[in-house]
Every structure is written in C-alpha cells, then in structure tokens.
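Aim 2, interim progress. The first record below pairs a target sequence with its structure tokens.
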Amino acid sequence: MVQELIVAGLGAVIAVIVFVAGAKIWPEEWQRERGETAEDLVLDLVKHLFIAVIAFMVVLFWQQDDDAERHTVAEAKGLVGIYSLAHNLPEPHHQRVQGFVREYTGRVLEREWGLMRREHRLDTATQATLTALQDALAAVPTDDPAVADLRFKTFDSLQQVTEARQDRGVDAARRVPRFLWIALYVGAALVLVSPVVSGRRITRNNVLVIALLGVVIASMLLQFHNLDRPFSGHAVVPREAFENAMTTFGQID
C-alpha cells in the first residue's frame, strides 16, 4: 500500500510539473487560439491509441494468468492421479512412488514457488525429483498384467505432470513484449503533454485535474508492472492446487 501511495504521489507531482512548465514554455498567443480542428483530431488519436494499448495489455495479462493457473491445476491433478494409482502398486514400489510424489509436491511448494517469484525459473533439484519418480515407476515389474496396466495408466498421469511442468516453466519466464511497454510509456507521456498542447491555462482547477490524471496514470503503470509475470508481483497465480494435492495424499493414505 505504501508503494502505491508513493507512486501515485509521484505521478501527480510529475503531471503538474509537466503541465506548469509546458504552459510557461508554450507560446501564450497559441493558448486557446488553435482555431482549426486538426490539432484536436491528433490529440484524440493519441488518447484512443493509448486506451487501445491499455486494453491490449489487459487482455495479455488475463491470458497469461489464465494459462499459468490452468497449467498449475493440470499438474496438481496429475500428481493426485499418480499418487492414487500408486496406492495399488505392489511393495516396495507403492511406497517408493508415492514418496517421490510427496517429495516433488513439497519441493514445488517450499522451494520452486519462491524461485519462480524471484528468478522466474524452475528449480533443477525439483526436476531431479521428478526424474527419480519416473525411474521409480519404470522399475515396477510388468509380469502381472494388472500391474502392467496400472503402471501404464500411472505413466499417462506422469506425462500430464511433465507437460504441465514445462508449460509452467514457460509461464514463469513469460512477460508482455517490450514494444508494448514502449508504446504504453510513450502514450502516457503524450497524454500528460496533451493539456499543454491543447492550450489550457494554469488555473487551480486545471492543476487539480492534471494532478488527478497523473495519479491515475502512475497507479495504472505500477499495477501493470505487478501483473507482468503471473508468478511475481501482487496478483500471483495461487498455489492452492498443490496444497490441495498434499491434502488429498493424506486422504488417499
């Protein structure tokens, strides 16, 4: 909350400075004497383009978060499937496979989630645990047709976990393209300058309106930065799917 207030205050100060300094520099005889509509059309075009960039980025943020959450849920479901199927495997494979599933899920929650937030990547040690799980499942004998069928179904769930994990790694590193950020900042600067170009004079009401405009733009830019990565910032993808999986393991046991 403190960060949001500081950024909003800075946005208001910057907007007022731009307006006051621009109004001082802008030739006085041009103020409110624009005459033709061409300038108004350009300013409207700038505002509409800025709104279009905002809308496009909001859609991208929503898509990124939706994909990341969907992949996380698919991975957790696959882990529950492996754990449930392994419950019927013969010993010692039953305990071994379930042990690796628990270890992998715990590593994702305790280590990998923080690593995705800080460094936007997956943990190599957690990947090694998933590889060990695959090796443990491959070691299950297939002499018994029922066990062989069970192992085949468990490998299907393991494939789901592997693919979802790869997608999660892509989601952790993904961010909005740089050219959109450039367009957003250029558009914000043009919107702040537009009151000067439109010839508005320095009055108390105009200064208050410009300050409010700066607050809105600065707050929006801050929130966009917080939304840029689905596993970082304030609006992160929840990890409830893995927590619920750990709870389900206990219920299966």
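The second target in this work package is listed in the same format:
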Amino acid sequence: MFDRRSLIKSAAGSMAGAFLAPAFASSVLSPDDKLMPVDTRNGRSGWAKPVKQVIQIKNCRIGEGTPKVIASTTAKTPDSFLKLMKEYAEMPELDAIEMRPDYIGELSGKEFADLSREAYKLAGNKPVLMTFRDKTEGGGRHVTDDWYGQFYTEVLNNGAVDWIDIEQFRDISVCREIVKLAKAKGKVAMFSDHEFKWTPSEDEIIRRLLMQEKEGSDILKLAVMAHNTGDALRLMSATWKVRNYYSGKPMLTMAMGRWGVLSRATGEFTGSDLTFAMVGGIPSAPGQIPYKDVKKVMDILHDAMYPKGA
C-alpha cells in the first residue's frame, strides 16, 4: 500500500509523463472529416466519416438540418382517419404524416389501398408514410407474415404512399419482396425494429441498424424502451456511432417512455434525422412530445449549434 509520500511522488511522475507524452506520440487527432487517430509514424490514415445521404420526398429533405417531425394517425374509423389526415396537412410544424391502418378496424389491403388514395390527396405536400404495426411491436392488430406481405403488395400496387415501414423481424423473404416492389415503384423503404420491454446492448443496436441497411433499407429505424436514463444514453450513443463510423443513411431512432424523452429532441446531436411527435394529446408510442414543443426545442438546439454568422 502507498504511503502519502509515495502517492505524491507517483502522482507527480504521472503528471510529468502527461506533459512529455505529446513529444513521443505516434498519432495525432485528425481533422473533422476523420474520426479515428491518424498514425503518423506508420503512415496510416484515419477512419473516414461516412458520407451523409439525404432523401428527398416531395419538399421534405430527410438527412439534413433539424430532424423532421412526423405525426401518426391513431383514428379507429375511415372517416376519422381522413379527418386527421386533413388536419395534419394544415399543421406547419409537421413535416410528414404516418398512416396507421392497423388501428382502423379489420381493413383488407384492397380496402386500405382505396382509402389511401383519398388520404394521400388530403396530405397535400407532406410526405406520407404507411406503417402496419403488429401488436407484438405495439400496433393495433396481429397478422401473419403472409397476410402482412399481401397487404403491403396491395397498397404499393393500388394505393398511394411515398414511403413504407417494414418490420425487420418478419419472415425475411416476405420483407425482401416488399422492398423489391417498393423500389420498383419508386417508394422509400424503411425497415424498423421496436423493443417495447427493454433496451438491447449498444453493439446489438448497431448490429440491427446495419442489418437493415444490408437488406436495402433507405432509412434505418429502431425504437427501444428505456427503463432509466442510461438506457436512453445507450441508444443515443449507438445512433451516434452508426452515423459517424458505419453508415450515411438517414436514421430514425428513439428511446420510448419518460426516460427516453431526451432522445426524441436531440437527433441533430446524435444522428437521428426524424422524430415522432404527439398531436391532440394522444401519443402513438410512450414518451412522445407535443409536436409544437418538440419543434421549438429542436429549433433552439439547432440555432445554438449553428449560430448565424458563425
């Protein structure tokens, strides 16, 4: 065990070493476009940051500036669904609308395809995302993989949407057929994964997002349930690493619940390009922030990060 004198001498030696270290270091931090150290002694370059990709849907550019705000329809009937679409289209704070057919009774793919054409007209210039969320991932109905694939096929062939959400852990052959058809129709495909009970490890979050990219996802999406602030920070850290080390694809990540609220408003800081917000006091997932509030917070953060004239 060190006595006081030994401890002081040890600390002094460590401090001296710290001051001398730069003179003998073989690596230096590289400029902003590189994230890993450049090995100057052996002539190795740093790790290049992925080129950020931007996806444009109508007038909305996803992947640049403040995260884009999406609101989901939670209507239970076709008439109330169409009413919500019209109301959302008139809200300037919303950038996109998510249609949720899983909430609307027992509609077939054909029935929703017909309804979606009318809804799409009401959306005006706002991009329209279509998501059928299974009960196992927090949605309104439970359906088989085959039924799910047929529903999406019907909507893509005969309905009206700009972009679709595909559940990552459905039968992969069904998912691949949906992606293939979506791309043939010129639609944006977004794989997604929702964990409503827990938050996976950082490595697992990264693995799942990169798996989505490998399968052709244009936007990468993952939601977890935060049981504490550490869970939220883990999700945010994984998002940052994917954006800065592994992929330039636009992302949509969030930690759900009260402890994940911060993740919904700090996407420009971490690398998440979209966020879901609440309209009318009815969230489509736990922890959503009212749409006007989240827009205001994100604008404040953006202006502080990129002050005018700086």
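The chain has a mean pLDDT of 88. This observation will shape the mutagenesis plan for the next reporting period.
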